[in-house]
Design a protein that fits this description.
With about 90 residues, this protein is of the alpha+beta class. It has helices spanning about 10-15, 20-30, 50-55, and strands spanning about 10, 40, 45-50. A three-stranded antiparallel sheet has the order 1-3-2.
């Protein structure tokens, strides 16, 4: 089977591909800071992966490190500290 890279992505996919929210994507398009969508058919639009790649490569290099808890799973509640658990029973 041959894996085919898509040429276009819908809004949700484009936002995920660029690691931003759909709201940030929409704001970027409105302000001219993000590639605009392409008209496909009717009211359907899509973003060219090639343009998203160029946009990503042109982002400035950050001097900020991610916070130390990035990606850390939150501890699960146990029966002893779960909301509604009986105290002293």
């Amino acid at each position: 089977m041959i894996a085919i890279k898509p040429a276009l992505l819908d809004k949700e996919q484009a936002a995920t591909y660029c690691c931003i929210s759909e709201t940030t994507l929409e704001k970027g398009v409105r302000e001219g800071n993000f590639p605009p969508p392409r008209q496909l058919v009717g009211r359907r639009v899509g973003w060219l992966v090639e343009e998203l790649d160029v946009w990503a490569r042109t982002r400035p290099v950050s001097t900020l490190l991610p916070p130390p808890n990035t990606g850390a799973k939150k501890p699960r509640a146990t029966s002893s500290n779960a909301p509604g658990a009986l105290q002293g029973a």
